[in-house]
Design a protein that fits this description.
Number of domains: 2
Number of strands: 9
Distance between the termini: 14 Å
CATH architecture of the largest domain: 2-Layer Sandwich
Strand order of the largest sheet: 2-1-5-3-4
Helix content: 25-40%
Radius of gyration: 20 Å
Shape: globular
Structural class: alpha+beta
Order of helices and strands: HEEHEEEHHEHEEHEH
Number of helices: 7
Length: about 250
């Protein structure tokens, strides 16, 4: 792509992001001011659990599993949306944070109908993997057991809202990568639902391109492909790192 002289001069005159020093879990690290705490942690092989975050998509901060503690602040903050400041001291795995994360997972399991034994994504589900990672063996809250209608109207795919965790990955990938804007959210709080178009059946959508990107980024079995077995539900997200690299090059 050719850039005008004015555009090139603007890029050349843009100062590079500041490099900050900070501490995460006792490690002295450095990172760019335009990188989130989660990005800096991952670059330094520090694991912070997350469910709604996916490289290549915009930050959402909905799942709250990536909460971290910052010295001097009373409230934990989402690592995926928080940018560092010089001298920050951050904790990612305190007992308080682990308790928060287990409670969040318990609420996610109790809110919908996550029955791993009969789920098409059993063994390839990020919600299931997080439960194992955090040692969640049972749910202390009462299950709501909503009766949400499964949408099998699409020729290739199935939408099961009983397994949706409202990470909104499908909404973001459809808008930001495919540009179709097929998915959206209806309702508030416990009544929130991911819908196609104006709450129409997926198969009757005029905007869906049937690209399957939404299915590939879904962390659970809420979106799946018809006729696939458990082993075939491994997600392929090769297009997202490529998109991220393109965006990075465009900024530089």
């Amino acid at each position: 792509m050719n850039h005008s002289p004015a555009s090139r001069n603007s890029q050349e005159n843009t100062p590079p992001p500041r490099i900050l020093t900070l501490q995460i879990d006792g490690q002295d690290l450095s990172g760019r001011a335009d990188e989130t705490i989660l990005e800096i942690a991952r670059q330094n092989k520090i694991h912070i659990p997350t469910l709604c975050r996916l490289d290549g998509l915009s930050g959402h901060g909905g799942c709250r599993l990536c909460l971290v503690e910052i010295s001097g602040q009373n409230r934990p903050v989402p690592a995926c949306l928080t940018y560092p400041q010089e001298g920050m001291v951050i904790s990612t795995a305190s007992q308080r944070l682990q308790d928060y994360r287990r409670k969040i997972l318990e609420l996610l399991f109790s809110e919908r109908n996550h029955v791993c034994a009969v789920c098409v994504s059993n063994g390839h589900c990020e919600l299931q993997e997080l439960a194992v990672e955090l040692g969640l063996s049972h749910v202390r809250y009462e299950y709501l057991h909503p009766r949400l209608e499964v949408d099998g109207s699409h020729a290739r795919f199935i939408r099961d809202p009983n397994r949706c965790v409202l990470c909104l990955r499908c909404v973001r990938v459809c808008a930001e990568v495919e540009g179709a804007h097929t998915w959206d959210v209806m309702g508030r709080g416990i009544s929130s639902r991911v819908i196609t178009d104006l709450n129409q059946a997926w198969g009757s959508s005029q905007s869906c391109t049937a690209c399957g990107k939404c299915v590939q980024v879904c962390p659970t079995g809420a979106l799946s492909e018809k006729g696939t077995s458990v082993a075939e539900m491994i997600k392929h997200r090769h297009f997202l790192p490529q998109l991220l690299a393109m965006r990075t090059n465009r900024r530089e």
